[in-house]
Write a structure and sequence with these properties.
8 helices; alpha/beta
Length: 252
Amino acid sequence: MATGAASRKKKPAGAGAGWRAALLRWLRRLAAALLLALLAAGLALWWAARWAPARDQYPWQGATIDASNGEVHWGSVKAAGADFAYLLATDGAERSDPMFARNMREARLADVQTGAIHRYDLCRLATDQAANFIRHVPRRTDTLPAAVWLDYDDRCPDRPTRALLLSELATFLAQIEAHMGKPSMIAPSPAFDADYQVTQGIARTAWLRRDFFAPDYGAHPWAMWQANDYMRISGADGTIGWNVVRPDGDIK
């Protein structure tokens, strides 16, 4: 009777080496695939940071700027192709952008036309927000229409009814427009407009947003489109929003 040791089959020579070689080949392929994925992601980010709609289709283009962009060098921003800039001015009933006054002053010196943005807060009264805007944004006849940024904010869990939102928004617009001497723009996000249909309920020029593709929401054609929220240009830190004006749109 054969012993257990004798009855066991011997492994073919080189079996362990073959297994290791297969593993190494698989690891090399995985590393190559990961490298290609990283290169593709890097290329996509590089492209996104530089893409803007064609000038022959949208001749008038500009940037969205706030304090997160640091000390902006407006001559460089102008040289990068910005004909105008929308500057964050106020946020809700109390907050304001600490760089707004400086950005407005220095943009004008660089011959970049400016407009002010107010971020609307669903948790605060319209009259309090209008007072904040009026306190920080001077009335000038040569400014672009003020823009009211409408989006959800984690700081505010409130979701008023559509009727209440439209009523409060109309109050806010009436007060800041009396101060500025001209109509404002409304700038709802896709989700906000889907929920509240503000472009249908408020008769104002619309500034809509969609990266890389023209917006397909809103009750009427947009006048301005934020086309790229990943743009990087010389003269400003970080990313900026890049905007184009519809040739037949009027935001002046």
